[in-house]
Structures are given as structure tokens and as C-alpha cells.
């Protein structure tokens, strides 16, 4: 594994969090049927640099409008939170899956790494789950922390599709991590160093802005440390940094404690 690949892997794991960068259309009661209806929304999305959270709650989005919005999202790789509850009011149930498929394809194409996906209050039924099944199985959801599906009427059938999709997502993400860590060119110390720098736990001459919230990275590390592919020689080093006084760590006491408990057992 090349040094740039190691850096990218460390950066990806570190950045499982969201700061600002929110664009909100919440509660505007927009009726977006056609591409023309959605042109203002699309322009705002396109013009928003560093888009990390998109709120579409309280509007109604049709198949054609979803398709063009998805096209705009294809260039928004930093998007991490999709607040998309209650956005199909008045739509036929048959319209919702294709709309969700388009939006999901936009996120996948963008290379987004979601931490939150809220599709609550959309009443799409069992068939609606098929609309975001591919998204859940993709790398866009390898970093997903929160999936909200309240009041969607999925039933047993939808629940089965959901369970299979999440299981596949977990399998794929673990397989990717195992491949990376098992590579003969993988440099464990370089990986840990880059990760700690991004987390703000290790100083560096590089101008890298440390992330503000370490909860996500700590929970991701807690999972990785328990896997057979994780280099056990890194555990004492990681433990040393986790036990040092640090305000960023202290603000994520639960995640830090969970990781420490795991490290003590390694």
C-alpha cells in the first residue's frame, strides 16, 4: 500500500464527524415535481462550498426533481448528513423508490461518506426500502452512525430488506479494512501516526486542521481494534495516547472509555 493510500485511509477514519456546512430547505413546503421546479434548490446546492449537511424536511420531491438534485449532489463529496424526513408528502408510494434510488446514486457517485441518514416520516412502506438498499450497501454508508426510519411503515418485509442491506454493508466495510491492513506494503506505524495527527492527538509540521469531535473516530477505532486484521503491536501505542490528558478526549468520555476497555483486553 502506497504512502498516499495510507494517508487517505487514516484521513477517512478520522473524519467520521460533521462540523458546519449545512444547507437547509427545512419546512419551506416546496413542491418539486420537475427539473424546472428544482432549479433554485439545485443552484444553491451547486454554489454551496463544503456542503456537509442537507436538510430537505417538510417539502415534497418528485421523481424528476430527485433526479436533477441527485446530479447536483454528485460533486458534493463532503456531504455527511442527509436530513430527508417528511419529503414525499402527497406522493404516490410508487414514486418514492425511484426518487430515493436517484438520490442514493448521487451520493455514491460523489464518494460521500455519510454519518447520518434520516428518512423518517416518509411512509414509503416495504417497497420503499428498496429505494435506498443500494446506498446502504455502498461505501457511502461505511461510516454511517445514525439511520433514522421512524414512521415509515416498513413492516416485516421492509425490515428483512433493511437487515440484509446493513449486514452486507458491514461485511463489505470489514473486508475493505482487512484488505488494507493485510497488504504487504501496509505501514502500521505510518497509519497510526497519520490518524493521530488528524485526531489532534499528535503534533505535526503539516498544516492539518484537527477535527473537533472525536466520538466517531474513537468508535471506529474501537471496532477495528477488535478485528483480527488489526495490528496488535499498535495497541500499546494507541493506549498511551488514549490515557494522556486531552480535552478533546475528555469531551467524548463514553467513546474513550469503550476504546480503553477494548485496548486493555488486547
General description of the model:
The strands form 2 sheets. The protein has a 5-stranded parallel sheet, with no helix packed on it. A two-stranded parallel ribbon has the order 2-4. Helix 3 runs parallel beside helix 4. It has helices at residues 3-14, 39-47, 63-73, 96-110, 125-128, 130-137, 155-182, 188-198, 215-225, 235-243, 247-250, 253-265; strands spanning 22-24, 31-32, 53-55, 60-61, 81-83, 116-118, 146-148. By secondary structure, it is of the alpha/beta class. Helix 4 (96-110) links the parallel strand 5 and strand 6.
Number of strands: 7
How confident overall, as mean pLDDT?
87
List the secondary-structure elements in sequence, H or E.
Answer: HEEHEEHEHEHHEHHHHHH
Total helical elements:
12
Major sheet strand order: 1-3-5-6-7
SSE class = alpha/beta
Strand content: 5-15%
Q: Separation of termini? A: 25 Å
Instruction: Give the uncertain stretches in residue-range form.
Output: 13-19
Largest sheet: 5 strands, parallel
- Radius of gyration in whole Å, from Cα? 20 Å
Question: Helical amount among residues, as a percent range?
Answer: 40-55%
What general form does the structure show? globular
Pfam families: LRR_6, RanGAP1_C
Protein name: Ran GTPase activating protein 1
GO biological process, one term: signal transduction
GO molecular function: GTPase activator activity; small GTPase binding
Amino acid at each position: 500500500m502506497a504512502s498516499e493510500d495510507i494517508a487517505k485511509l487514516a484521513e477517512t477514519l478520522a473524519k467520521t464527524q460533521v462540523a458546519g456546512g449545512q444547507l437547509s430547505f427545512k419546512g419551506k413546503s416546496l413542491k418539486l415535481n420537475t427539473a424546472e421546479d428544482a432549479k433554485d434548490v439545485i443552484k444553491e446546492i451547486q454554489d454551496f462550498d463544503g456542503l456537509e449537511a442537507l436538510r430537505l424536511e417538510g417539502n415534497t420531491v418528485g421523481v424528476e426533481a430527485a433526479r436533477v438534485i441527485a446530479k447536483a449532489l454528485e460533486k458534493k463529496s463532503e456531504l455527511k448528513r442527509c436530513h430527508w424526513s417528511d419529503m414525499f408528502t402527497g406522493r404516490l408510494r410508487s414514486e418514492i423508490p425511484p426518487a430515493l434510488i436517484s438520490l442514493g446514486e448521487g451520493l455514491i457517485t460523489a464518494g460521500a461518506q455519510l454519518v447520518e441518514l434520516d428518512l423518517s416520516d416518509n411512509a414509503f412502506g416495504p417497497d420503499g426500502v428498496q429505494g435506498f438498499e443500494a446506498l446502504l450497501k455502498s461505501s457511502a454508508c461505511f461510516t454511517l452512525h445514525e439511520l433514522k426510519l421512524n414512521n415509515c411503515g416498513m413492516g416485516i418485509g421492509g425490515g428483512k430488506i433493511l437487515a440484509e442491506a446493513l449486514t452486507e454493508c458491514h461485511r463489505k466495510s470489514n473486508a475493505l479494512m482487512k484488505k488494507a491492513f493485510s497488504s504487504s506494503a501496509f505501514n502500521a506505524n505510518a497509519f497510526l501516526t497519520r490518524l493521530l495527527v488528524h485526531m489532534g492527538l499528535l503534533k505535526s509540521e503539516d498544516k492539518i486542521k484537527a477535527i473537533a469531535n472525536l466520538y466517531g473516530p474513537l468508535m471506529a477505532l474501537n471496532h477495528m481494534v477488535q478485528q483480527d486484521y488489526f495490528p496488535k503491536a499498535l495497541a500499546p501505542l494507541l493506549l498511551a495516547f488514549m490515557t494522556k490528558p486531552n480535552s478533546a478526549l475528555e469531551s467524548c468520555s463514553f467513546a474513550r472509555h469503550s476504546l480503553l476497555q477494548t485496548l486493555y483486553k488486547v
